[in-house]
Amino acid sequence: MNDPLTYRYKRTLVEAFGCDATQAVAIHKYKPPLHRRFFYALIRTGWMLVVLALAAAVLTGCDDTQAEEATAASLRDALAQAQQESPEQWTAERRARADAAAGLVARGVQP
């Protein structure tokens, strides 16, 4: 604002703010907290994590054959035990159907 006596703008720090250079405070840059900076970095580079996860899933493949074989073996063991307990109820056709059903269940196929 203009000085009403001289009609000029205030040109020095003392005139403008009423203090000198020894009373001035350095300007500090705001630095967000660590958890917020970590979140921002995750947002900036999150697309790389998605690409890496997809690449790992595609390159490693699905190896569930051992799990399927183990599940089928345990189901067949349970069927064999049931057949030993009551052999009169198990015909050759029922045994074949039970074995096929055990294989399907081991693969995760819902009946």
What does this protein look like?
Among the domains are: 32-61, no CATH class; 65-107. Helix content is 62%, strand content 0%. It is built from four helices and no strands. The longest helix is centred in the middle third of the chain and has 27 residues, at 34-60. It is rod-shaped and about 120 Å long. The termini are far apart.
What characteristic shape results from the CA principal axes? Answer: rod-shaped
Q: Tell me the span between the first and last alpha carbons.
A: 85 Å
Q: State the helicity in percent bands.
A: 55-70%
Q: What's the total helix number?
A: 4
Output the radius of gyration.
Answer: 39 Å
- Strand tally, please? 0
The assigned structural class equals: mainly alpha
* Low-pLDDT sequence parts: none
Major beta sheet summary:
none
* Mean pLDDT over the full residue set: 78
Strand content: under 5%
Write the SSE topology:
Blueprint: H1 13-17, H2 34-60, H3 65-85, H4 92-107
